[in-house]
Amino acid sequence: MDIVIYSKENCSYCEKIKQVFKLKDFEFVEYVLDKDFTRNQFIKEFGEGSTFPRITIDGTLVGGCTDTISYLKENNLL
Prior knowledge:
By secondary structure, the protein is α+β, with helices and mostly antiparallel strands. The chain is 38% helix and 22% strand. It has a single domain, classed as Glutaredoxin (3-Layer(aba) Sandwich). The protein has a 4-stranded mixed sheet, covered by helices on one side. Helix 1 (12-23) runs parallel beside helix 3 (65-74).
């Protein structure tokens, strides 16, 4: 699986989903706001009003933390 997390500092949901991936030994790439991308780039990619984190799996946007946990459960990965 190709997992990418778009996160920001001091985000409890970002930390939670990273912990879930680490517990399952899933490798992921993390991009951090104001380090790897700007707010404008984030809005352009995910739309106005999108929240953190944004997770893509194999190039498909899965959503935020809750959506990703649901996706992993539905696909018997959790």
